[in-house]
TrEMBL record:
<protein>
    <recommendedName>
        <fullName>Yeast cell wall synthesis Kre9/Knh1-like N-terminal domain-containing protein</fullName>
    </recommendedName>
</protein>
<feature type="region of interest" description="Disordered">
    <location>
        <begin position="123"/>
        <end position="158"/>
    </location>
</feature>
<dbReference type="InterPro" id="IPR018466">
    <property type="entry name" value="Kre9/Knh1-like_N"/>
</dbReference>
<dbReference type="Pfam" id="PF10342">
    <property type="entry name" value="Kre9_KNH"/>
</dbReference>
<feature type="domain" description="Yeast cell wall synthesis Kre9/Knh1-like N-terminal">
    <location>
        <begin position="21"/>
        <end position="114"/>
    </location>
</feature>
<feature type="compositionally biased region" description="Polar residues">
    <location>
        <begin position="148"/>
        <end position="157"/>
    </location>
</feature>
<dbReference type="InterPro" id="IPR052479">
    <property type="entry name" value="GPI-anchor_Adhesion_Reg"/>
</dbReference>
<feature type="compositionally biased region" description="Low complexity">
    <location>
        <begin position="123"/>
        <end position="147"/>
    </location>
</feature>
<feature type="signal peptide">
    <location>
        <begin position="1"/>
        <end position="16"/>
    </location>
</feature>
<keyword id="KW-0732">Signal</keyword>
């Protein structure tokens, strides 16, 4: 009979959830968002609650991160609380039955660290569009080099206020290249 219960415990253990990240060298940052991934089999519970735990702290630390998480996708993005996550080592993610039963653990991650977020800087380039004054040209003379006096205050329509399609593409490419740098 004792063998039967041992075998039953082994079968239950073999078909349980398994947290694949975070853990080990795959840690979190205080600013997040951070990802929890897991594997499951069809006989596992359909949902669970995600708890961040650290038993190495005094007092021990437990925080419910998400309740009633659907177990079928195998991935959940955890957003940090408004104050961010605490920093340190020895953290674990527990998949538990629900927020009322935190001690019923379906799976537990390996220990991992939570560190300050690294910052990156980027430069940006803002393009300012060129505009031409709105006016009506009543001069029917299309000569680009007129010899008489001009009474019209608008510039002659010589195409200088237009950018060709090739020129537009070059301008856009240049702006995008500057943004990448």
């Amino acid at each position: 009979m004792q063998f039967f219960f041992s075998l039953l415990s082994f079968v239950a253990l073999a078909s349980a959830y398994r947290v694949t990240s975070p853990g080990g060298s795959s840690g979190w940052t205080i600013a997040g968002p951070n990802v929890v991934t897991w594997e499951r089999v069809s006989t596992d519970a359909l949902n669970f609650t995600i708890v961040l735990s650290n038993q190495a702290r005094t007092p021990s630390y437990q925080q419910v991160l998400a309740a009633l998480v659907d177990g079928t996708p195998g991935k959940f993005i955890v957003r940090p609380p408004s104050t961010g996550f605490p920093t340190g080592t020895g953290f674990q993610v527990n998949l538990v039955e629900d927020s009322e039963n935190l001690s019923t653990i379906y799976a537990q991650s390996q220990q991992f660290s939570i560190v300050q977020a690294t910052t990156t800087t980027s430069s940006s380039l803002t393009a300012t569009p060129l505009t031409t004054p709105a006016a009506t040209n009543t001069d029917t003379n299309t000569d680009l080099n007129p010899t008489g006096s001009l009474t019209n205050t608008t510039a002659p329509s010589n195409g200088a206020d237009r950018i060709s399609a090739a020129g537009s593409a070059s301008l856009i490419f240049g702006v995008l290249a500057a943004m990448v740098l």
